[in-house]
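Translate structure to sequence.
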C-alpha cells in the first residue's frame, strides 16, 4: 500500500468512522447496538419486552435477570421503584413490583455503562420522589408551538390516526429513559377541538404508542368546551347539563384510552374562559371536572397562573386568588403552580403558594423551553435554577421546609404528588434546537425522579452520554454548563430585575418598551420602575406587600433591604442608585459590573468551546460554536441596551474599567425582531 492510499484510508476512517457526523438526533441514547447480552425475565408484558430488548442490544456486561415480584423490600418503594443487585461482570438482577420499574432499572444499568460510573458490584435502590413526572407540550393543533424554538410540533395531527411518525416511539423511549411518565399533548391555551371525536381517535393512537413505555397521555382542555362543542348555552360548572356533558366526554375518552391520565386546565387566565365567567370559583371548576374523571381514576391539574389587569401587584395575585380556596379541592385535583410568582423569569423567588397552601396538593411547573432565556440560541443549563427553587426554604413548618418537601409528600401527605416541565421539544432533527438544550429535557426528567441529584451530577451524566468520556472535555464543559444560568441572569436581568423583555416575543431587551393602550403589567416599566432616584419593584410592606405572603422569618428577611438576598434585591425593593452593596460598590456600579460579567463570561464560553474541537464531531462542534457567537452578540446587546437606558435615569458613568458600550441607544430602540426567526 503506498503512502497516498494509506493517507486517504486514514482520512476516511477519521472523518467517517471515528468522528462520525452527528446531528444530535440520538440524544443521550447513543449506546452501540452490537451487544448481544443475555437477558432473562420471569414475566412478560409489552413494557418488559422493551426492557429486555434495550438490554439485549446495548448491555455489554454479564447476564441480567429482570424479576417482577412483590417482596417486602420492594413494597417499601413507590410503584416505579426498583432494586439492582449483583455484579456487572458476574450477573445482575433488577427487581421491581411493576413492569415500568423494570424498564427504569434497565435504563439505569445502561446509564451506568454509558457514563462509566461506579464499581462492578451493584447495590442500588431507587424510588421516585414525585409520582407523576410530566411534560407539558404547548403545541397547537395546527402544528405550531407556543414558545417553541425547535421547529414545529412532533405531533402530526393531520396525519394521525393513519400515519405514525417514527418520532413518537423515539420520544417515548427518550422520556422513559429519564423516568418521565406522563405527557400533556396540547397547549394550555387549548383549542376545544382536541375533545372532538376525531381528535380523540388520534390521541388514542399516540397513547397506544406511549403506553408500553410507561407514559400516560393527558390533555389540556378548554373550559368552554360544553358550550363550543356541545352547543350548550354556557359552561357554568354548577349547571347539571354542563356536568353531564363532561361526564359523557370522560366516558368517551376512557372507552378509547382506558389509562388516560386526566386534564390540565388554564382557566380565567390571559383571556381563557373559566368558572369565574359564571361567578364560580376555581375550586368549583376544578371539582366539576374532577368528579367527571373520578370513576376512571383520572386527575385534574388546575393551573394557578392567574393575574388580572389592575392595580394589584401581579406577583401577589395567584396567592390572593388561591389561598382562600385551600382545602376546597377534590382529592383528584392538584394545583399546578409555576416556580416563581410572576412567570418563568431568568431568576425569581419561589411562589409563596408553596408552603402557603397546606390542604391542597400542589405541583411545581418548570419551564424547560427557554422562553425567557435566549430561546434555542443561548446555552443555558437550567438544573441550577431548578435546584435553587427546590431547595428554597418556605419556613411553613419551621426551618428546612423546602419547596420539595412541601410538594413531594414529605410535609403534606396528599394523595397526589407531581411535577411538570414545559417541553422544549420540536421537529428539529436534534429535537431541541440547541444541542445543549437537550440537557434541560434530560435534567428535568432526572430531577423529577430525584430532586436530590445535584446539577453537577446531572451535567456530568448528560455530557458523558451525549458527547464523550474524555475528561479534557467533561471537566471544562461541565463547569461551563454549571455557570451558564447565572451568566445569562447577569447579562439579562441581574440583581432581581425581571420582565424587561421586548414586547411579546421575549427574546431581546426592551426596558423602554411602551405600547399605547397596552396592559401596564405587560410592559417592562411596570417591573423595573427606573427613575431618577433608583430602580426596582417595592414589594415590601411599604410597597405592594408581596413579602407578607411569605412565612416568617423569610418575610422579614426579604422586607429588609439589608438582609434581602442581593440576587433578588430589585425584585423586592426600589433601591437608590447610590445604595451600598455588600461589596461596597454602589448599586449602579454593581449593576454595570454584573452586566459586564455576563458578557465576559459568554466570551469565555466561546474560548472554552473552541478548545473542544478535537474531542467531538465536527457537526455538533460547529453548530454549538455558531450559537455561542449569537449568544455573545446578544449578551452585548442586552448589556448595552439596559445600561444605556438605565443610565438615562441614574445619570452616572459606566465604571471606566468596564468595556464601553458599542451600540447607540437610539439604534437599539429601533430593533424590531422578525418573529419568524425567533419564535
Ligand atoms: C407565559 C407565556 C404564554 C403562556 C403563559 C402560560 O408567555 O405564552 O401561555 O405563560 O403559562 O409565560 O399560560
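Result:
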Amino acid at each position: 500500500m503506498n503512502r497516498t492510499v494509506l493517507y486517504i484510508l486514514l482520512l476516511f476512517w477519521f472523518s467517517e468512522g471515528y468522528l462520525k457526523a452527528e446531528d444530535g438526533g440520538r440524544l443521550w441514547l447513543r449506546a452501540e447496538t452490537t451487544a448481544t447480552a443475555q437477558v432473562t425475565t420471569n414475566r412478560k408484558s409489552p413494557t418488559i419486552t422493551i426492557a429486555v430488548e434495550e438490554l439485549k442490544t446495548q448491555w455489554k456486561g454479564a447476564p441480567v435477570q429482570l424479576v417482577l415480584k412483590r417482596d417486602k423490600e420492594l413494597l417499601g418503594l413507590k410503584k416505579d421503584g426498583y432494586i439492582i443487585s449483583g455484579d456487572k461482570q458476574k450477573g445482575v438482577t433488577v427487581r421491581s413490583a411493576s413492569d415500568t420499574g423494570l424498564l427504569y432499572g434497565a435504563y439505569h444499568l445502561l446509564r451506568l455503562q454509558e457514563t462509566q460510573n461506579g464499581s462492578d458490584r451493584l447495590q442500588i435502590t431507587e424510588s421516585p420522589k414525585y409520582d407523576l413526572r410530566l411534560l407539558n407540550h404547548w403545541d397547537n393543533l395546527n402544528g405550531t408551538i407556543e414558545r417553541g424554538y425547535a421547529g414545529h410540533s412532533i405531533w402530526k395531527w393531520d396525519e394521525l390516526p393513519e400515519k405514525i411518525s417514527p418520532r413518537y416511539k423515539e420520544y417515548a423511549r427518550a422520556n422513559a429513559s429519564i423516568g418521565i411518565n406522563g405527557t400533556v399533548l396540547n397547549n394550555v391555551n387549548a383549542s376545544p377541538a382536541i375533545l372532538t371525536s376525531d381528535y380523540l381517535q388520534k390521541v388514542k393512537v399516540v397513547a397506544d404508542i406511549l403506553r408500553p413505555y410507561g407514559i400516560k397521555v393527558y390533555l389540556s382542555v378548554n373550559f368552554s368546551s360544553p358550550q363550543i362543542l356541545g352547543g350548550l348555552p354556557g359552561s357554568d360548572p354548577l349547571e347539571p347539563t354542563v356536568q353531564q356533558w363532561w361526564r359523557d366526554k370522560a366516558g368517551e375518552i376512557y372507552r378509547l384510552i382506558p389509562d388516560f391520565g386526566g386534564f390540565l386546565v388554564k382557566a380565567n387566565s390571559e383571556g381563557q374562559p373559566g368558572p369565574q365567567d359564571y361567578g364560580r370559583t376555581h375550586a368549583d371548576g376544578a371539582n366539576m371536572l374532577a368528579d367527571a374523571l373520578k370513576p376512571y381514576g383520572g386527575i385534574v391539574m388546575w393551573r394557578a397562573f392567574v393575574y388580572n389587569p389592575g392595580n394589584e401587584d401581579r406577583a401577589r395575585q395567584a396567592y390572593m386568588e388561591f389561598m382562600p380556596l385551600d382545602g376546597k379541592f377534590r382529592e383528584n385535583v392538584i394545583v399546578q403552580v409555576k416556580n416563581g410568582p410572576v412567570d418563568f423569569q431568568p431568576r425569581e423567588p419561589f411562589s409563596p403558594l408553596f408552603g402557603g397552601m397546606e390542604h391542597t396538593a400542589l405541583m411545581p411547573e418548570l419551564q424547560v423551553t427557554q422562553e425567557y432565556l435566549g430561546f434555542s440560541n443561548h446555552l443555558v443549563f437550567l438544573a441550577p435554577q431548578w435546584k435553587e427553587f427546590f431547595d428554597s426554604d418556605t419556613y411553613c413548618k419551621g426551618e428546612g421546609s423546602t419547596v420539595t418537601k412541601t410538594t413531594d409528600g414529605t410535609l403534606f401527605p396528599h394523595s397526589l404528588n407531581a411535577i411538570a416541565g414545559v417541553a422544549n421539544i420540536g421537529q428539529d432533527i436534534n429535537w431541541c434546537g440547541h444541542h445543549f438544550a437537550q440537557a434541560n429535557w434530560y435534567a428535568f426528567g432526572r430531577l423529577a425522579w430525584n430532586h436530590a441529584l445535584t446539577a453537577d451530577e446531572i451535567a456530568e451524566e448528560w455530557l458523558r452520554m451525549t458527547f464523550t468520556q474524555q475528561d479534557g472535555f467533561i471537566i471544562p464543559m461541565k463547569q461551563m454548563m454549571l455557570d451558564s444560568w447565572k451568566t445569562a441572569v447577569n447579562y439579562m436581568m441581574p440583581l432581581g430585575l425581571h420582565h424587561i423583555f421586548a414586547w411579546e416575543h421575549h427574546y431581546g431587551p426592551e426596558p423602554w418598551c411602551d405600547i399605547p393602550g397596552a396592559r401596564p403589567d405587560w410592559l417592562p416599566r411596570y417591573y423595573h420602575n427606573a427613575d431618577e432616584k433608583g430602580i426596582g419593584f417595592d414589594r415590601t410592606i411599604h410597597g405592594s406587600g408581596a413579602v407578607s405572603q411569605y412565612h416568617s422569618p423569610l418575610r422579614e428577611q426579604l422586607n429588609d433591604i439589608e438582609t434581602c438576598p442581593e440576587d433578588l434585591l430589585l425584585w423586592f425593593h426600589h433601591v437608590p442608585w447610590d445604595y451600598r452593596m455588600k461589596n461596597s460598590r454602589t448599586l449602579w456600579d454593581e449593576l454595570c459590573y454584573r452586566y459586564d460579567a455576563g458578557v465576559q463570561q459568554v466570551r469565555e464560553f466561546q474560548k472554552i468551546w473552541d478548545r473542544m474541537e478535537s474531542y467531538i464531531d465536527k457537526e455538533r462542534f460547529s453548530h454549538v460554536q455558531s450559537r455561542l457567537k449569537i449568544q455573545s452578540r446578544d449578551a452585548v446587546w442586552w448589556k448595552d441596551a439596559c445600561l444605556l437606558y438605565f443610565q438615562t435615569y441614574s445619570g452616572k458613568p459606566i465604571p471606566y474599567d468596564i468595556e464601553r458600550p458599542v451600540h447607540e441607544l437610539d439604534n437599539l430602540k429601533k430593533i424590531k425582531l422578525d418573529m419568524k426567526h425567533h419564535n
